[in-house]
Amino acid sequence: MNSRAGTSDSTVRRSGPARYGTGAQMAGLAVIALLVAAAAAVGNLSAVSTADKYEALEQPAWAPPSWLFGPVWTLLYSLMAIAAWLVWRAEPWQRVRVALGVFVVQLILNALWTPLFFAAEWRGVAFAEILVLLAAIVATIVLFARHQRWAAGVLVPYLLWTVFAAALNLAVWQLNT
């Protein structure tokens, strides 16, 4: 029984999406998609010719080819938007605002990594920043799980890819100093 609402958890979760009409749900999805797209755009626009810069770096043998990053990040950003939307519609705003606030923080940290690594070429700072990003992603997953378990699960590939990216960042930093 959920003491705040006086109903069972399953009733709260089922009633969440129903309280928004289709237009409001689509508007919420559009706003979230725009936020995620803005984060992606900041990374892309801040470091022109990242593929060329990536190829020019000495890399570990396990580094993926540059063409792989675009499709992977497209999928991950789509999953991020879906996860945030699932949480937004799961419960009233007052209950999900902290979780969505932490989501926005991790999105900002995500957007900052590319300019640090590629544009500024501060690979050590980028590594420290990606560790903070990882903590923010874990916090987001934990908070999302409290409101909508599928949303938390949808973020696991993002967490795993970011762990891989952190290891790659560290290796590239060490190989290119």
General description of the model:
With 177 residues, this protein is mostly helical. The chain has one domain (23-56, 64-176): Ferritin (Up-down Bundle), CATH 1.20.1260.100. Helix content is 80%, strand content 0%. It has eight helices and no strands. It has helices at residues 9-18, 22-46, 50-56, 69-90, 93-119, 123-147, 149-154, 156-175. Helix 2 runs antiparallel to helix 4 (69-90), helix 4 (69-90) packs antiparallel against helix 5 and helix 5 runs antiparallel to helix 6. The protein is elongated, with a radius of gyration of 18 Å. The N and C termini lie far apart (57 Å). Residues 1-15 have low confidence and may be disordered.
Inertia-based shape: elongated
Q: Note the gap between the termini.
A: 57 Å
Helix count equals 8
CATH architectural label: Up-down Bundle
Low-confidence sequence ranges: 1-15
Average predicted local confidence, pLDDT? 88
Largest sheet: none
Radius of gyration: 18 Å
What is the level 1 CATH name?
Mainly Alpha
Beta-strand percentage range: under 5%
Q: What number of structural domains do the residues give?
A: 1
CATH superfamily: TspO/MBR protein
Helix-strand makeup class: mainly alpha
CATH topology tier name: Ferritin
Protein name: TspO/MBR family
Main location: membrane
Keywords: Membrane, Transmembrane, Transmembrane helix
Membrane topology: Multi-pass membrane protein
